[in-house]
Amino acid sequence: MACPITATANSNSKSKQTLISPSEIQSEFSHHDPTVARVNNGSFGCCPASIIAAQHRHQLLFLRQPDHFYYNTLKPSILQTRLLIQNLINADHVDEVSIVDNATTAAAIVLQHAARAFTSSAFQPGDAVILLHYAYGAVKKSVHAYISRTGGHVIEVHLPFPVKSSSEIVSEFEKALRLGKANGRKIRLAIIDHITSMPCVIIPIIELVKMCRDEGVDRIFVDGAHAIGNVEIDVKSIGADFYTSNMHKWLFCPPSAAFLYCKMSDELSDLHHPVVSHEYGNGLAMESSWTGTRDNSAQLVLPEVMEFLNRFEGGLQGIMTRNHENVVEMAQMLVEAWGTELGAPPELCSSMAMVGMPACLGIKSGSDGLRLRKHLRECFKVEVPIYYREPLEGEVDPITGYARISHQVYNVAGDYCRLRDAVNTLVKEGLTCALLLK
Amino acid sequence: MAALEDPRPAVNGAAPHVSKKPKLSFITESELRDEFAHHQPGIARLNNGSFGSCPASIIAAQRRWQFRFLRQPDDFFFNQLQPQIIQSRTVIKDLINADHVDEVAIVDNATTAAAIVLQHVGWAFAEGRFQKGDAVVMLHCAFQAVKKSIEAYVTRAGGSVIVVHLPFPVSSNEEIIAEFRKGLARGKANGKKVRLAIIDHITSMPCVVIPACELVRICREEGVERVFVDAAHAIGNIHVDVKDIGADFYVSNLHKWFFCPPSVAFLYCRKSPVSPDLHHPVVSHEYGNGLAIESAWIGTRDYSSQLVIPEVLEFTRRFEGGLEGIRNRNHDKVVEMAQMLAKAWGTNLGSPPEMCPSMAMIGLPSKLGVLSDDDALKLRSHLRDHFLVEVPIHCEVPRDGETGAMDADGCMTGYVRISHQVYNILDEYIRLRDAIIQLAQNGVTWKTLQS
């Protein structure tokens, strides 16, 4: 694997001699368990030591004199974060950017808003919300809790996996949208992942949003939980009404912080944070900035994160490009070693890739996947999430399990070699998931 | 900050555990100072009530938990988080005398707990279990966030609100009980069905201990369906026994008076047929598994402040008499300081000592002319910026037809709320005393100082 820092000319004039070195990177992540092959940045992200230290400084500022912090420091600090995000995602107004705890919270905000529309009869019973079958578990539950409960009809769009190209995704979505609108049903909200979680694939979001607009979908919410720091985000190009992403996954923030972008519209004033404080009615951004006494420190370190990013060649763009290239290289190494295949072509992989696992492992259910994951964690100290894919009828020797590998700046080739070797060992030993049950 | 150690575990896999060695002696003065050495020196910090405080050893414990997550988050999520939250919930259950640990959910703060209870009410209106016009009762001095939550979830859904005005200054529990009874009866006058009463255990501003047991009993007598006690200030401040109090829902913040880092609270929900219907508004994959389980996972978060509760209990045991000893001494001290201030200013306490917790309301000299909430806030900023004294100020304008409490120069409309926590010292209250005396000198109101 190529050394992550290459000596090419870069546009950042002052930083040539301050580029972070590989040993400095290891130092920044020395709090990671050194015995673990940590190839799952996608689930919980990571946070460099210098950002943790910055977070602690902000926390101590509050503890030092909380009243002063509350009255004089907190709001301007959150505004700084929002301005940085506005810039990163190309939003028009900072009012459109709210900082919330995580994408799960953002989903609750958007869906509670839709629930109100149903209960106030602005939406009719049977009006639909459309989402991907691969939508994140919490989002599906939130749809159940807020939409099904208030009489909305839920349409799940099944996307192919493995997938060969975005056009497969586009055509499946189009079919589902048409079907959904059959009999004049009104689609009030579309929830579309920018990068699905499991299985992990980049969705052609610009086309899908446009399609939704063309088909008269009222509002579109893009769940970009994995997106920031992973793929480029331009909310104006994407054109959705709501867009959320977690900053603690791929943007080096400590747990936890996320943004929810809400395109300016008349409806914007009626979006509320479910935890109501004295800021109620002052706009979602204000409401989100105070939900009772909290530790807001994770939301305040973005300026320090920007500095951290600039220590890398090409800044955030450079990090994203190299992560993607490295994960694809590692994924191809694994499929070759295991005799399997990728779940999606490289152009649909972000900084994560779905790697088919040997069929002989006998992954026959989601629980099998979890068990195998646990076994890899406990016996090989390899941390990787495993996706179970139900085989189609008639498939011979199907690949039913896929490892979702991530690459972040702290990863080294050895992490993936350990995964490769662990699985090869299991195959050699004739281990199957059925045997793990015993 | 000598007390803050490197939180990273020295040995791979070493588990931070609660010290089991026998206690030889209680915490010393200098250890106590070290524990709060991160507080800004030079500030007379008389406002523990607003944001609480957290000792250095607990901050260090929190960081150890934070690093355990950061070290291997998947392992932490799958193997450590849930059992540890159950441990915290169990400590709380014992502290508050709840019957079942299922009744104890850990949430971010009392504001979140209010949203949980009120969203539940909102659903009842939306789904026709409650009718338009059914009422929710609140005290007029309820915390602003709670008032807004009522607006967002009750008023908006068609419910009505009965506001019960409590007297202040106040001389006895009997006054409060009588006013509450009257207010409730008045509100129910048109045969309104009262679905929920929200009663503070300790009101925030002005700060008074409410006879919660009696008020809950009155609610039951008057046919109020459910009672929610907002005890944001209570735990670590006064004795809490949820069975005694008898409410359906009871919330208290643990970061105010129970030494937890920001932020963490518990919401107690007595087992009842509606328990399965209570939900956290942030829905995760745990939806439907009960409020406590739902609250234990609301997406990726830093749950470390919720995990130090066992360590905090140990911390309180370093004090003579443990938590109860701390409470009693805080109360005695704050009353002593309050009486010192009232005497120096020629004013009165807003309530008798037995109705003060670890906080007390003392009338400001009337000549200071605090006549509005805005005045109060400005005076507070002035004290912070010019005298390095942090103390919240309440404005109580007498209601129509009432004369209000008087000092030698007129009507007392401004009150300070002083707190006493283990880190406070006499000098801080003397500085407040002298700052106010200086401002009140020569009949100058602080307002003329401003212009």
From TrEMBL, chain A:
Zinc recorded as keyword: no
Protein name: Aminotransferase class V domain-containing protein
Keywords: Pyridoxal phosphate
InterPro entries cross-referenced by the UniProt entry: Aminotrans_V_dom (IPR000192), PyrdxlP-dep_Trfase (IPR015424), PyrdxlP-dep_Trfase_major (IPR015421)
Occurrences of domain Aminotransferase class V (ranges): 78-264
TrEMBL record, chain B:
Keyword Isomerase tagged: no
Translocase as UniProt keyword: no
Domain Aminotransferase class V: 83-272
Keywords recorded for this protein, A-Z: Pyridoxal phosphate
Protein's recorded name: Aminotransferase class V domain-containing protein
Source organism phylogeny: Eukaryota, Viridiplantae, Streptophyta, Embryophyta, Tracheophyta
